[in-house]
Write a structure and sequence with these properties.
This protein is mostly helical. It is built from 12 helices and no strands. The longest helix has 27 residues, at 114-140. The chain is elongated, with a radius of gyration of 20 Å.
């Protein structure tokens, strides 16, 4: 019995993995249970045994996304300067890319899935609170200067850009924007544009460091580590905390 349960669990996870890949590639509305079954080389009946409806597949993937997002957002408390912020937002865009079907087809999913409608309101609230904590940490680290009303407005703008960035990328190039080979450039542009909203508030040295980071990461032939600095601990702490929260 234990072996059967273990095998069933592995099959369920494999179904989710393949479904996520198909949703990301073609968009959720364009992927049928028949296509999922064919890709898995299993019968439709076997698929329905694990997931009786396509909406259940979407719901389980949303659960996965929320678990990973909650772990990531906890790391907002470890952001103290521009390099920490760069790492945090780049990792946020990596997660959004991993579940990009949610953002590509967001309006369609919201209109037909009540659970996503309610859960994405929670997601937006959690993102907003995390970004506000990022701004508070940057202020404590004397990386930025902005008033409380400015912080609220900027946090909202940053959440809006991060939420709809992939939709913008898709509109710009529907045939290629969301293909895996374009991930690096899309994530770089997203993180850069989110942080550019802070440019008027960064201290001069921090603003220059942001420009150097963007230029270093934009080189197509290399994938540099963050620019060396005297105190690299906060960025390492951010990545470490995310890994611990996800384990």
């Amino acid at each position: 019995m234990a072996t059967l349960v273990k095998k069933t669990g592995r099959t369920s996870e494999r179904i989710l993995d393949v479904t996520l890949e198909l949703f990301n590639r073609f968009g959720e509305p364009n992927v049928s249970t028949t296509l999922i079954s064919a890709e898995l080389n299993i019968s439709t009946g076997n698929l329905y045994y694990h997931y009786p409806a396509k909406d259940l597949l979407v719901d389980r993937l949303v659960d996965r996304f929320e678990t990973a997002l909650n772990a990531l957002l906890k790391a907002a408390d470890d952001v103290h300067d521009v390099e920490d912020a760069w790492l945090f937002f780049h990792m946020l865009f990596e997660l959004i890319w991993q579940y990009r079907f949610l953002y590509r087809d967001l309006n369609d999913l919201l209109s037909k899935n009540r659970r996503i409608e309610t859960h994405f309101q929670y997601v937006l609230e959690e993102k907003t609170q995390a970004v506000q904590r990022v701004l508070a940490g940057l202020a404590r680290g004397q990386a930025i200067r902005l008033t409380a009303p400015e912080a609220e407005s900027v946090a909202t703008a940053m959440v809006v850009v991060s939420t709809y960035w992939l939709s913008y990328e898709y509109v710009r190039d529907p045939r290629h924007a969301l293909e895996p080979e374009n991930a690096g450039a899309a994530l770089l542009r997203g993180a850069s544009h989110v942080l550019s909203l802070l440019a008027p508030y960064f201290e001069p040295a921090q603003k220059q460091h942001l420009l150097r980071l963007a230029q270093a990461y934009s080189k197509p032939t290399s994938h540099p580590s963050p620019t060396p600095r005297a105190s690299a601990a906060p960025a390492a702490t951010t990545r470490s905390r995310i890994a611990q929260q996800g384990s």
